[in-house]
């Protein structure tokens, strides 16, 4: 069975990519909790965050830290929430979610965004993450 996030990380499936380096890939969640909700994944298949090597585990959190600041600025969020559930897709991923108030991270708030909204946010974040 093919892994959705492996296909996304290798560009076999088009996603709203906002940042990548040699090891990790970040893209918009198409059903964001709030606009600017992104996922950070390793390019190599690992079933969940806690199965990453210690070094990769440290590095994926460094990526989260690096992207959080410009994400907050770009979305005018009060804070950036970080969540790990891993119930949906069995490929390690971290959610970074711009939040404005308590309980904003509730996944039941996620709503499918329109293509136009996603394209607009992708453009904003590509610009915010440029050079990182
Ligand atoms: Zn995978």
What does this structure look like?
This protein is of the alpha+beta class and about 130 residues long. The chain has a single domain, classed as HIT family, subunit A. It has three helices and five strands. It is globular. The model has no long low-confidence stretch (mean pLDDT about 95). The site of zinc ion has 5 residues, from helix 1.
Short overview:
This protein is of the alpha+beta class and 132 residues long. 32% of the residues lie in helices and 19% in strands. The longest helix is centred in the middle third of the chain and has 22 residues, at 54-75.
* Beta-strand content: 15-25%
CATH superfamily: HIT-like
Average residue pLDDT? 96
Shape: globular
Summed up, the helix count is 3
Which sheet architecture does the biggest sheet show? Answer: 5 strands, antiparallel
Second CATH tier, the architecture: 2-Layer Sandwich
Question: What compounds are bound to the protein?
Answer: zinc ion
Strand order of the largest sheet: 1-2-3-5-4
Distance N to C terminus: 34 Å
In N-to-C order, the SSE pattern is: HEEEHEEH
CATH topology category name: HIT family, subunit A
Question: What is the CATH level 1 assignment?
Answer: Alpha Beta
């Amino acid at each position: 069975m093919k892994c959705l996030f492996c296909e996304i990380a290798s560009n076999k499936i088009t996603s709203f990519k906002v940042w990548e380096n040699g090891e990790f890939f970040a893209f918009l969640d198409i059903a964001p909790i709030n606009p600017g909700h992104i996922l950070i994944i390793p390019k190599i298949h690992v079933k969940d965050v806690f199965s990453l090597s210690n070094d990769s585990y440290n590095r994926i959190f460094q990526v989260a830290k690096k992207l959080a600041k410009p994400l907050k600025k770009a979305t005018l969020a009060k804070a950036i929430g970080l969540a790990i559930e891993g119930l949906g897709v069995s490929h390690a991923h971290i959610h970074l979610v711009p939040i404005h108030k308590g309980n904003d991270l509730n996944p039941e708030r996620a709503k499918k965004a329109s293509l136009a909204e996603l394209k607009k946010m992708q453009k904003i974040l590509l610009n915010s993450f440029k050079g990182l």
